[in-house]
Amino acid sequence: MMSITRQQAWDKLCEWTESDALRKHARSLEIVMRQAALRYGAGESDVESWGAAGLLHDADYDKWPEDHPNRIVAWLREQGEEAIAHAVSAHHTGWNVPYESQLDKTLLACDELTGFIGACCFVRPDGIHSLAPKSVKKKLKDKSFAAKVDRYEINAGVEMLGADLTEHIQMIIDSLKPHADELGLNGSEN
Known about the structure:
0% strand; mainly alpha; globular; 10 helices
């Protein structure tokens, strides 16, 4: 049972994150992680906490990039959200925190890939609406496209989950598609 509400998580994100792009990334990852809880987690009982992990994983990055994710991890621990705090710590690969839970592994497998899929949508006329895993995988091979996206993290996370990359990409696309308007994923023609 989570000790924080979804509204508290959203309020903390908005308090610390002014960037619309970073808020949209956080919201995107929340949506994806909620779906991922059904696929990789214990099901409905994980949806809220996994969603909160997605929403809050970069909450301190906008204001304190050099200190990320120290502040959000500390806040989560103060709220009694140790599992989410651990996953957020592990997603910051520079800390070398071990990936112990499905939540830890899934957050890593979804974070960079969700952002990458968003980047793929921006260069397509109809965005996410016709995006297929084959196109995403082709773009992943192009190191100059979305060059800051860490391909190693994507592959490591998917491998740790024991997931099929194509199916994992499709799950993320399917999760985001109903929210295309909210997330700005309708493509370059819109």
